[in-house]
Structure prediction request, 484 residues.
Amino acid sequence: MRIVIVLVLMLSWLSLSVAAAPARAQDAAPIVLGANTTGMADDMGPAMDGFAARTGAMPQIAMFYRDWETGWSTALLDPRFVKPVTDRGAVPMITWEPWLDTRGGSVAQPDYALARIAAGDHDAYLRRSAREAKAFAKPFLLRFAHEMNGGWTSWGAGVNSNTPQDYVAAWRHVVDLFRAEGATNVRWVWSPNVGGENIGVPRFEPFFPGEDYVDWVALDGYNWGAHKGSGWRSLSEVFAGNYDELTRLSAKPVMIAETAAPEQGGDKAAWIREGLLNAIPTRMPRVRALVWFDRDKETDWRVNSSPASLDAFRAVASSARYGGRAAALWDDAVPPTPAPAPDSPAPGSQPPAPPSDVPVSGGSLPASSPGGSAPAPSAPAPSPPAGPPSAPSQPVAPAAVPTVAPTFAAPAAVASAFVGAAPSSRPASVRGSASSRATRAHAARVRALKRLRAEALRRRAALRRAAKARRAAATRRRAAWRRR
Prediction:
């Protein structure tokens, strides 16, 4: 009887697993593909169009960098750069760096220490930024103080006396201030660098500000190939262990916020195909967005660094797995209730302010993060200081890059969902997504399996009770026989 019960349990588990596999493949939401590409700091629209022409797909996330310069006409959102993004049906992701990159790339900037941010020293600037975000109205991604567990930025671990506790306090202070100003259209992206003793970067768990303070959790990681001592590493080797830690830490949707590979040290084309088309969907299924660092910097990270690499990335961009649209980014991110305003001095009069356009000096940051020194796009005031232009994109031979007409506008349904009010004002039916449906279906399968297990346990207990009763009856019969 026990053998029968075990067989029933095994068959039940097998049938549920087989049924779940195609359901997971069918229900999985497509991944949203984005880029930080050469030229975004000069002219966002043509830079995005050029990436689309090379790869055959318009990036749905346009990621760019911005420091805390207060000498420009805007504090955070420059229409010259965000409007071309939304006009193309994509979403801006601003990597917001709390320092001044006009100081020669020096990370020794104690006036931007995290403890001072948490104490309210920069609240006037932060309030102006929050009000700009609210006025923008459309949802956008804000990646504040990324790679905080590394030591190559002014907000990094151990720099300017920063501690993980200071980071958490600063993050929560900034988010609370934005919510108090009503900027509920901001989606907060918490983005550490891949960490661990094997790569000499501290683990990121102590820096996590809490589920109520993030909308996305992300990882930055690169295959450095022949450029660092770690050698050639597959995408799974770069991310998988940290992905496991991240998904244990948070239930929020996951993003690969920066990644790329070089040509030197291995097969870049195979790295792209295996990593993006196989490793991420199968080994890291909670990844819902990926941003490629498409620049020629420490090495040629660009997708068109060789014809083979470009062909591989075009295969990724044309696949159904990477067909996610920008509007899908908001389906599972409902803004929380605004928090009360933090105690801070009232904002005083301050000269108009936007981002710095001066890139960090070459070699000023450790090579752990290619993206950390990218210049931030900016809209100069009447007489702005001139910044050096970004390096132009290298021309691509026509044979290597077939001409593909990019799609410059999202479908009407996508555009209307993106341009509308913050997701919290849309009905729940609009906020639903394939990802949430897949989650509900998986939960239903788990509940069914639990019911089967409980029923099997009940049957086994009943059989044990029956066997015990039979043994007791037999004992009584033997005792009665002896008395005779």
